[in-house]
Amino acid sequence: MGAGSGSRYGGDVPKQYLDLAGHRVLDWSLASARAVSDGVVLVVGAAMVDVPEPGADRVVEGGTTRSASVRAGLAVVPDDADVIVIHDAARPLALPGLYDDVIAAVRAGADGAVPGLPVADTIKRVSAGVVVETPDRSTLVAVQTPQAFAAASLRAAHSAGLEGTDDASVVEAWGGQVVVVLGDPANTKLTAAGDLERLEHLLAAQADG
Description:
Layout: E1 19-20, E2 23-24, H1 25-36, E3 41-44, E4 58-61, H2 66-74, E5 83-86, H3 96-107, E6 112-118, E7 125-127, E8 130-133, E9 141-143, E10 147-150, H4 151-159, H5 167-174, E11 178-182, H6 195-208
Parallel strand pairs: 3-4, 6-11
Antiparallel strand pairs: 1-2, 5-10, 6-9, 6-10, 7-8
Helix pairs in contact: 4-5
């Protein structure tokens, strides 16, 4: 997925097209997807739909919401695909092993699988500035991408026109079972100014490791 506007990041260039250690953020994400996939579909904004992308097999224009963009991508995924993986291009440090983990969980029988990390901080749910609940953090995880899904389940969930902040929530709302595999602390998202430098340090650490 590379159709986001990057409005929280700021600047004139969408964040997924910024330079990260000599390559675009998007290029790092495409390389990992290519390493584990039989085919890569890239969903982009309207201004970038005609730009050649050698790392992708197909480039399609996204929609006005995340779910609409996913549906645009699904429309060109071959009908014989049995597992579909969706990744946010703004997470350029997702390694192929993480893809393997979520795919394996789906092949084991789940409708979907997501990487997640335990939540270290106490979380408060608030309304109008007032705390209304303190969830048990042992039951919480911070979810990442790539997220893998049984193709039939993902298509059925999106055919219902459901919306969500990620595809796991769409499949959950449809009634599917989504499981969690251990995520990677280095698989952080480029969201705000300053994140790019942090990603550069993490990328250097990966190379040294």
